[in-house]
C-alpha cells in the first residue's frame, strides 16, 4: 500500500510545499492535472522538483503554475533546451477555475500548490485556497508541532519499559 503521508519510501509524493502549511491557513483544496513535457516527467520520476515560492495564477480562464522548479536530467539537456522554471498549465474544470479566480480576488486570499504526486501514471498537483497566518498563529503551529514531537518521545520511552 502506498504511503500517503509524505516523501518516504513507497510514497506517491514527488514534492511537498511544507512552507505553505506553516505560512497559511488552508481553506479549500483542489486536485489538478499538469501539462508537462516528456523530459519533465522523467525528471519527476527521479524526484527532481521543488515547490517552494510557487503560486497559482488564473489568467484568461486558465490556471497556471508559476515558480515551480523541475531540474532537467543530464541526458535530456544534451539534445533539448530545457527551461526548469517555465510556466506550466494546470488542468482543472471550468467551475473550479472560476471558484479559484473569485476567491483569489478577495483581500488576503491566494492559491498555492501543496504537493505534486503520482496518481496512477499521471502527475497531479494538490492546490489550496489559503489565507495568510498572523505571527501568533505561526507560534501556535510551532508550539503544537513541538508538543506532538515531545508526546511521541514520551510514548516511545513508556513503551520501552
From TrEMBL:
Residues 140-161 are annotated as: Disordered. Keywords: Cytoplasm, RNA-binding. GO terms for cellular component: cytosol. Belongs to the SmpB family. GO terms for biological process: trans-translation; trans-translation-dependent protein tagging. NCBIfam families: PRK05422.1, smpB. It is found in: Cytoplasm. Required for rescue of stalled ribosomes mediated by trans-translation. Binds to transfer-messenger RNA (tmRNA), required for stable association of tmRNA with ribosomes. tmRNA and SmpB together mimic tRNA shape, replacing the anticodon stem-loop with SmpB. tmRNA is encoded by the ssrA gene; the 2 termini fold to resemble tRNA(Ala) and it encodes a 'tag peptide', a short internal open reading frame. During trans-translation Ala-aminoacylated tmRNA acts like a tRNA, entering the A-site of stalled ribosomes, displacing the stalled mRNA. This is SsrA-binding protein. Pfam families: SmpB. GO terms for molecular function: RNA binding. The gene is smpB. InterPro entries: SmpB (IPR023620), SsrA-bd_prot (IPR000037), SsrA-bd_prot_CS (IPR020081). The keyword Plastid does not apply. Its main location: cytoplasm.
